[in-house]
Amino acid sequence: MKLPVAELHIHLEGTLEPETILHLAGQNNVDLPWPSLEELRAQYDFSNLQSFLDLFYANLAVLRTAADFQQITTAYLRRAHESGVRHVELFFDPQAHLERGLTLAEVISGIRAGLETGLSRWGITHKLIACFWRHAPAESAMEILRTLVREKHAVDGIGLDSSELGYPPVLFREVFAYARENGLHVVAHAGEEGPAEYIVQALDLLQVERIDHGIRCLEDPALVQRLVAEQMPLTVCPLSNVRLRAVDTMAEHPLRRMLDLGLKVSIHSDDPSYFGGYLDANFDAVIAQFDLSRGEQAVLARNSIEASFLDAPAKALLFGEVNAWLESR
Ligand code: ADE
Ligand code: ZN
Q: Can you list the domains of the chain with their CATH numbers?
């Protein structure tokens, strides 16, 4: 039995496998600068967040129709099911797709169709979160958010992603206020490459319900105290942090310190097709590196469920599955 978990930090666009990229390029007549699998794979050596984002955004050129979104969402959920995912809160970047002439309705209806397949085939429940680019003007985010609300698109929350350094959360204060006023959940990437101060801003100015990454909180002891006291969820992505050089090696990853400090951390995969593995691979890496006991693995799973936007009865069912896992050996 796989450890039952909620996947809360996963970018749909970061699940595009190289083979799928080339397949869709052929199908949709898109010319990529790296036409063979070998040439494409040679690009996957990153020096920082931006070097990854440049490739990640370029590859999105292959996504052209609602059916493409449905297909990649279903493919992701098939793989997520194998790694024990019971609930997913899926990120997507609307700006990346509108830029290429798709409509919000095409993107969202395709993703939703895939999510429904995940529910009926594998019993994976879901929420959908539209992430805004912090490197783009806040006006662009606001315009899309107003459309999402006005046209009643089926999204459950908003997030904030892309290049972090130089784009502090304060820039998106009005966007997040508008989302909260309209009953949307709010999360933000902060403290991945950016300083602890960006985490403080995300909490105070955006009033987020979770921090995505947040590993640089350790540079500010007062912030750590606050995050512990508030039991603020931090969605940590170990393989991503190593591949994007936020830390040099897994041995230097702060997960063990974060757990020992009492921070509410959970483990996630971020962009699994780019960083060497899905949720199970992230768990395997930290279990091996930090010698995590089954009890500690269960804490990480419970934290992911607790930090999700599921209602209390749905959370209780998943906590029951974690208990069954603990008793299963
Ligand atoms: N978009 C996709 N993955 C991301 C990450 N790790 N950080 C910021 N933006 C992203
Ligand atoms: Zn991310």
A: 5-327 (3.20.20.140)
